[in-house]
Description:
Elements: H1 2-17, H2 22-27, H3 31-46, E1 63-64, E2 74-78, E3 90-93, E4 96-99, E5 104-109, E6 116-128, E7 138-146, E8 158-165, E9 172-175, E10 177-178, E11 184-185, E12 188-195, E13 201-203, E14 208-212, E15 215-217, E16 246-253, E17 256-261, E18 264-273, E19 278-284, E20 286-296
Antiparallel strand pairs: 1-20, 2-5, 3-4, 4-20, 5-19, 6-16, 6-20, 7-8, 7-19, 8-9, 9-15, 10-11, 12-13, 12-14, 12-18, 16-17, 17-18
Helix pairs in contact: 1-3
Amino acid sequence: MKVGCGNLFYDCLKARALRPSRAILARVRSGCLLALLLVACVLAVNLETARAGEPISPSDGVIKLFNGKNLDGLFTWLQDAKFEDPRGVFQVADGMLHISGDGYGGLITKNEYRDYHLIVEFKWGERTWGNRKEKAKDSGVLLHCVGPPGGVGGSWMVSIESQIIEGGTGDFIVVGGNDADGRKVPTSLTCEVTPGPDGKDYWHRGGERKTFPGGLIRWFGRDPKWEDVLGMRGKNDVESPDGEWTRMDVICKGDRITNIVNGVVVNEGFDAYPSAGQILLQTEQAEMFVRRYELWPLGKAPPFERKP
C-alpha cells in the first residue's frame, strides 16, 4: 500500500508538471476514472506527507535502490525536460548505472527513507558538459529530500547533500528551497568545525558547534587551495583517483549523518532538518558510473573493502 501511494503521488506530480494533462489522458480511458484520479491527485499534491506513507527504514536486509537491471523504484528529473529523459542521461549498461552528465537534475527514489546505511560505489567517466566542461567533475547524493522535484533552482530538491566532487567528496551542502506552494522550507545541519587557513569551516571532531541553515561544510582534509578546475585533486584526498572506483558510505541515524569515503570518516553532522525523505542521485554535467547503490539496516552494512 505504501508503494502504491508513492507511485500515485509521483504520477500526480508528473501530470501536474506536464500541463495540459496529456499524461493522465493517455493512461485513463474512462471519464469517470479520470475524474476520480484528478481528485486523488489534488489530495496527494496538497498532502505532501502522504507521498509514500511513512518513510521506510531497512530492517531485515538490503534495499537495492539500483537493482543492476532497470530503474524500477526510481524516476528521472531534468531541469530542461522535467520528468522525461529524451537524451538518455540515465541508462543501465553492463549491470551499471550510467549517468551521461548531460544536464542538471537527478534520479529520485519514489519512496521516502530514514535510518539507513547508504552505500554508493562510483567512478568518473571521461565526459564533461556545458558550463562545467573545464571544471571539477561534480555530482552528489541528496538525502532527506522534501518538496517538489526541481524546487531548488529548477534542478534539485530541498535536502542535505553528501557531496561528490573532485577534491570535495564528503562535504555537506545544506540545500534550501521552497515547497510546492512557494513557501521557504526550513533546513539546518549542525557540525563541529574549525576555521581553515582560508577562514572557511572544515569539519573537526570536537571543534566549535555551528548550525548551518544553508551552504557548505567542508570535509576535514579538503585542500584549502581547492579550485574548481577539471582534474582537481588535493594532497589529502581519500577519494580514489579519476577513473577508479570510490565507495562512499552515508549513515543516517535519526538526525545524525556521517559521511565515510573509502573507509575514512570525513564529515559528520547532527540535528539535521529534514531528517527523512526521498534520495536523489545527481547529474551535474559530469559523466559517472555507479555499480552499487543500496540501503542497509543500521549496524549491518558490509565493511569497506577496496575492490578494482
